[in-house]
Amino acid sequence: MAAAGAPQPHQLRTFRPRKNIFSVYSDTELIQRFRLDCAGILFVTNLIRDRLTSPTQRNNAITPEMKIAVMLRYLATGKMQLCNADDLGLSQPSISRIVSETIDALSTPAIVRQFVKLPVQRTDIQRNQAAFMAIAGFPGVFGVIDGTHVRIIAPSVDEPEYVCRKHFHSINVQIVFDAHYNILDIVAKWPGSTHDARILNESGVRTAFEQHFVPQGCHLLGDSGYPSRRWLLTPYLRPQPGPQTRYNRAHKRTRCVVERGIGQLKRRFHVLHSEVRLNPVKVCKVVIVCAILHNICKQRNILLPGGAGDDDRNSDDDDDDDDDDNNNPPNHLPQAMGDGRLFRENFANIHFQTG
User: Fold this and answer.
1) Which of 6, 73, 188, 276 could form a disulfide with 287 if both were Cys (CB 3.0 to 4.6 A apart)?
2) Which of the 8 DSSP states describes residue 305?
3) Per 3-state DSSP, what percentage of the chain is helix, strand, and coil (rounded to 5)?
4) Residue 89: what pLDDT?
5) Do 183 and 295 form a contact (C-beta atoms < 8 A)?
6) Band of the pLDDT at 354, cuts 50, 70, 90?
7) CA 226 distance to own-chain centroid
8) Closest CA to 148 of 314, 293, 273, 241
9) For the residues of 13-81, what is the DSSP string, one character each?
10) Which of 306, 269, 308, 304 lies closest to 106, judged by CA?
11) What is the 3-state secondary structure (H, E, C) of 230-249?
């Protein structure tokens, strides 16, 4: 028996073997598990490599590539435990710490501005408008806008503010898509009870249009939950036969892009489908990072898992957030709505006079 107070023998730490995902999986298998291929994972890693690299290699330091893989696996599944199920060789506390570290690094304003931005070059705008025009003959469309709710656990602070009209806790996220399902703008910071119209009214998108950073003659299409503006065209609630009906028909077909875009985003990153078990601030960062990664996938022509393309009809948003008749603009946001409705009437009469 060892003498009392005698020093205990030093126990060496043991480390589980870590899987080299690049040697184990093909690009197709990487996309299924991590939503990016090998080159895509390395591309994202290089964006924030300096922030992820450990200063020393003591204690078997985790590589930046492995940290990005852990984050991508979490976003793809919404379940941190599945990273261990794939035998990446990391503990649950390490996975939780890595997810927070990588999400913080990728959601910085500099990274967001690099991948989520409104087009400013006239040629880019005209190309986008032509693509929208080809859908249903609706002219001048710059983008399509909608809100979607991301479920969260009940927060400990201001809990009632996060209960949306569907009676669950959420973040209300505003998204603008172009005709090719790229995200042009995203706002993820508002509690679920906030009306879509208020989010728009206090967003940079409104400023960009009203201060003419976006050229005149460009329009967003939104549902009737938004106020009518010269730059934001909404549907008629009770269209009359003729131009109004034809306008509504083209508006609906064109605006389907935002519903499919949200569906694609949530299919690509299942974390947005389920209840995100993080505090609201972290959830907002998760949403922003998913938007960045979605656009990176678009730029690199990486399809949805299973090979579904942009026109996959199963990609529609399943939130049912577009209940137009029950989502009218609140009465405290009336400014310019009359002018917007008059503009819409003239627009419909000019462009949809004939079928």
Assistant:
1) 188
2) T
3) 50, 10, 40
4) 76
5) yes
6) confident
7) 20
8) 273
9) P--PPPP-HHHHS-HHHHHHHHSS-HHHHHHHHHHSHHHHS-SS-TTSPPPHHHHHHHHHHHHHHS-TH
10) 269
11) CCEECCCCCCCCCHHHHHHH
Pair 228, 234: CB distance under 8 Å: yes
Q: For residues 323 and 320, give the distance between their C-alpha atoms in angstroms, rounded to a whole number.
A: 6
Confidence bin at 54 (pLDDT 50/70/90): confident
Q: Residue for token digits 């984050």?
A: 71
List, for residues 301-345, the tens digit of each pLDDT value: 999 987 666 655 555 655 545 444 445 665 544 555 678 999 999
- Round to whole Å and give the CA distance between 248 and 199: 24
pTM of the model: 0.89
The whole-angstrom separation of Cα 129 and Cα 347 is 16
Q: Please name the residue that has the structure tokens 């503010």.
A: 161
- CA separation for the pair 88, 99 (Å, rounded): 14
Q: How confident is the model at residue 5 (pLDDT cuts 50, 70, 90)?
A: low
